[in-house]
Amino acid sequence: MRVTSFTTTMSAEDIMYDLKTLVEPQVPELTFTKLTLEDNYIEVAGTFHKIVDIPFLARIRIVSVFQNIMSLRIERVKVLKIGIPKFILNMASKMAAKKALEMGLGYENKTILVNIDKALQKVPHVHLEVDHFLMENGVLSLRLKGIEADIEAMQKEANKDKEAEERKQQEMEAEKIRIFNEKLQEIRRTEDSYSEFRNKIMQKVPYDRKNLAKYGFILPDMYALALRLMKDQRVTKRDKAIIAFTFMYPLVPVDFIPSKVPVLGKVDDIAIFFFGTNYIMKKIPVPILVKHWQGDLATLKLVKDNIETILNFTPGKTLNQVYGFVDENLEKRKPSYLKDEAYLVEAPIPMDLNPIFDPVTK
User: Fold this and answer.
1) What pTM was estimated for this model as a whole?
2) Could you tell me which residue ranges the DUF1232 domain spans (predicted)?
C-alpha cells in the first residue's frame, strides 16, 4: 500500500494518551499528569517516584524537521520547583542521547535529533516521511508523505508472532502436563486384600497373556475403585451416594425400579453401571483415581477416555444428560473439589486452599 501524503493532527490529549500507554508501562516510576501545546512548545508535567513522588516540569521546543530528522531542544526543566541551569540540561540531553542511539536519537549543537527512519525500524515494513509541522491553537499538525506499508509482510509478521506465542503456550502446557504426570507416578497406591488377590492371579497368568488379563481385570478393578472411593474422606457424600447406587444396583437380582419411573425405569442394569463409571471418571479428581486404581495407569486412561462414548450407545445416555444438568447446577452453588493439583499431596496440612487453587466444576 502506498499513500502520497496526508496531514494528521494530534491534540494535547492525544499525546498524553500515547505517553500514558507507551511510556509509563516501560518506566513504572514515571507518571505524567499534564501536557500543553503552544507556540512550538510541548510542556509536560508529572512525577517520578523514588521513595517519594518527585514532581517535575519539562518544556521542549520543536525546532525543525528536515530529511526526516526532527530537531528538539529542552528549554526548561524544573524538579521540586527548582530550575535547572541550561548547561546541566545540555549535559543531561547529551548523555541520554548517547544511550538512545539505537532508538534513533542523537545529540548535536545542544539539540536532540530524532531520526524518524531509524525509529521506524522498530515497526518493520512501514516507511513515512515527516515533511512539515505546525503547532497552533493547542494542536500539533504533521504533514506526512511517501507513506508505504507492506501489508502482506506485516500480516506474515503478525502471524509469525501469533504462531510463536501459540507454540510457547503449547510448550508450557506440555511441560505442565509432564510435571503433573510425574507427580502422579509418585502417589502411594492403595494396598488391601484385593491387591494381594489380584497380584496372585496375575502371577499365574502366562507372560504372553498378561496384556489380555489386565483388560479382563477392568470390571473387578472398577468395583475395587468404587469401594475405595467410598472410604476416602475427600470424596463428597453426594458422590458416594451415586457410586453406591450405580455399582450396587446391577448386583441386586430384583428390579427395584418399576419401568413406569421416568428415566430410571427405562435404564437397564448395565447402563446404570456405565453411567456410574462415567460419573466417577469425570467427577473425581485424577490423583484420587490414581491412588485407588489397582491396574496400570494406561488402562485407567483408556477407561477414562472412552467410557462416555460407550455410555452414549446405551439408555444410560439419557440418565447422564438429566443428572448432568442437576449436578452442574449443584456445583455452581458449591463446588465439590479443588483443582487436581491440590490432591497430589498425600497428607496435606490443614489449610484454606482457596487463595491458592480455584474451585472447578467438572
Assistant:
1) 0.55
2) 240-275
Q: How confident is the model at residue 86 (pLDDT cuts 50, 70, 90)?
A: low
Half-sphere exposure of 23 (CA within 13 A, CB side): 13
3 state DSSP class of 292: helix
**Cell 485424577, residue?**
286
CA of 159: how far to CAs of 125, 150, 163, 166, 360, in Å?
14, 14, 6, 10, 33
CA gap 245, 277 in Å, rounded: 11
Q: CA-CA distances (angstroms) from residue 92 to 53, 81, 88?
A: 21, 18, 6
What are 338-353's pLDDT values in tens digits? Answer: 889 889 876 544 444 4
Q: How confident is the model at residue 62 (pLDDT cuts 50, 70, 90)?
A: confident
pLDDT value for 353 = 46
Residue 96 identity: A
Reduced to 3 states (helix: H, G, I; strand: E, B; else coil), residue 73 is: strand
Distances (CA, A) of 218 to 232, 254, 294, 296, 301: 21, 25, 9, 10, 12
Q: With CA atoms as reference, report the closest residue to 30 among 20, 40, 18, 17.
A: 20
Give yes or no for a contact between 64 and 71, defined as CB atoms under 8 angstroms apart. yes
